Amino acid sequence: MRHGMANKKLNRTSEHRKAMLKNMLNSLIKYEQIKTTLPKAKFLKPQADKIITLGKRETLQTTKMLVSKLQDINSANKVKKTLSKRYEKRNGGYTRIIKAGFRYGDNAPMAIIEFVDRDVEAKRVDKKKKNTENTEEKKVATA
User: 11-51 pLDDT, tens per residue?
Assistant: First the structure.
């Protein structure tokens, strides 16, 4: 019998699986596009869509639920302020999975999961900070 087999286990314990899902959700919200294996992307897609749908409701309860699921106030704020406004006319289907070949080391099928109308600049959130820090360090070193 197949009772209680709703999700894939991904060869991980339940705690590891929950932590991995939370980290992948936070990365997807922050960068709006991540590259991962195909089974992980398929596991992440419905959860990400549920998070966006939850963020579209403007109540304190949904804000608390977002913070408890994501464990990151910045991600919860981005979902509430940016992503929910972007997808207010869309009834689901906020993410897409694009197959991206196979990984070199173990031949695992890779995929890119991204938001449908994503912000291209969101992918470079951390890179700008690193570049400005490097240029400041170079200025200090030359002075």
Answer: 999 999 999 999 999 999 999 999 999 999 999 999 999 99
Number of other CB atoms surrounding residue 17 within 10 Å: 16
User: How many domains, in total, are found in the chain?
Assistant: 1
Burial tier of 89 (Cβ tally within 10 Å: 0-12, 13-18, 19+): exposed
* Extended strands (E) in the chain: 33-37, 95-102, 109-115
Domain harbouring 117, CATH code: 3.90.1030.10
10/32 Cα distance (integer angstroms): 23
Q: What Å distances lie between residue 86 and 21, 48, 69, CA to CA?
A: 23, 15, 21
pLDDT over threshold 80, residue 142: no
